[in-house]
Amino acid sequence: MEAQAEKKKATGGERSLLIITASEIARSVIENIKENNYAGYTIAGIVLIDEEEKNAEAGPAGTSSQEERFIDEIPLVADRDTAAEYICHEWIDEVILVPSEKTDFPQELLDGIQETGVTIHLNLLKVFDEPGRKRFVEHIGGYTVLTTSINSASPQQLFLKRMMDIVGGIVGCIFTGILFLFVAPAICIQSPGPVFFVQERVGKNGKKFRMYKFRSMCLDAEERRAELMKENKMQDSKMFKLEFDPRVIGNRILPDGTRKTGLGQFLRDTSLDEFPQFFNVLKGDMSLVGTRPPLVGEVSEYELHHRARLSIKPGITGLWQVSGRSEITDFEEVVQLDRKYISEWSLWLDLRILFKTIFVVLRRKGST
User: Fold this and answer.
1) Which phi and psi (to 5°) does residue 289 adopt?
2) What are the angstrom distances between the C-alpha of 118 and each of 55, 99, 212?
3) How far apart are CA 271 and CA 294, in angstroms?
4) Tens digits of per-residue pLDDT, 328-352?
5) Is residue 214 classed exposed, middle or buried when 0-12, 13-18 and 19+ CB atoms within 10 A define those classes?
6) C-alpha span between 187 and 264 (Å, rounded)
7) How many CB atoms lie within 10 A of CB 132?
8) Is residue 262 a contact partner of residue 248, using CB atoms and an 8 Å limit?
């Protein structure tokens, strides 16, 4: 058991941790985390809050064309000005902030990080009141920290949610196999090519994964996206939705202007195209209920507060989908609904959303 614990401490685990500290104590903070890494973190990088030197060529993620700098084999990934942007665009699960007694508390930086929705651990050396945040004391490395997040869940709640996902994932995969027998031949007949559509999406805290769907669009759908952007119902490019999508299998506009729909639209209207996502749920990339997983290109345009959508696992359904998704065209409203779900999350809320999703899908199916 002790050997396993030592191996976990040395190699890191599934959660990535960004260290933000002062240059004078950076080495000791890194050593402390490494030596007491009982949570099994992988240290993603370090940010020095008192470093004066700014890299003129640094981009949103704090990268540079110059040779990368390290402290105890941990890369310096950003500075005080670019740390929040780095978190916004990279896979960071949690942040630990350890200021020194000689440095000013980086309140502006802290405010920016909190906008992203990532979990923050504050060393209790210097702490200010932060209303409206879930807070509790715990230990990271050798530090006693005050942890803040949009919401918190007990290990029992997380276990029950994961069990619900596993059961739902298994049942969903069985139904997906049955649907495959009918959907696969129909897709191949109307649009020869792969039955499944595989696309890279952004999951919890920026982690990328491959999402699966039954293919409901023509093979050149992604190439035609740019030319159709002007018809996007959403008010900006952070999300893409069309009133009538000509890329969908069977969709076409007749000479008299009549819009004709086909197999692909049927799959989308009935949500049958999304059944392969139950495999993502079973793998742990997604949950039954969560926020919709965005495209990599969409996330690259996020502002800090938009990133809060990524603070939980994405879901097959969610509060936005059952709140009239076809009528919502303002991305900020989508973000508000997602933040509302995250801050008010409970198992009971997930069950309500699941039952409401069934009702919404059946209602849409009845209207097609």
Assistant:
1) -125, 135
2) 25, 18, 26
3) 18
4) 777 888 888 998 898 889 999 999 9
5) buried
6) 8
7) 8
8) yes
The confidence band for 11, taking pLDDT boundaries of 50, 70 and 90, is: very low
Buried residues in 70-109 as b, exposed as e (16+ CB within 10 A):
ebeebebbbbbebbbbbbbbbbbbbbbbbbbeebeebeeb
Over residues 180-207, the pLDDT tens digits come to 999 999 999 999 999 999 999 999 989 9
Structure tokens at 156: 């029992």
Cβ atoms of 146 and 120 within 8 Å: the answer is: no
In the three-class reduction of DSSP (H, G, I as helix; E, B as strand; rest coil), residue 77 is classed as strand
CA 13 to CA 254: how far, in whole Å? 56
Mapping DSSP to helix (H, G, I), strand (E, B) and coil, where does residue 228 land? Answer: helix
Q: Which amino acid makes up residue 44?
A: A
Tokens found for residue 265 = 């639209």
Concatenate the DSSP letters of all residues of 283-299 into one string. HTS-EEESBPPPBHHHH
Q: Which amino acid is at 72?
A: D
Q: Is 64 exposed, middle or buried (0-12, 13-18, 19+ CB in 10 A)?
A: middle
Distance between CA atoms of residues 193 and 11, nearest Å:
42
Compute the C-alpha angle 274/275/277, nearest 5°.
75
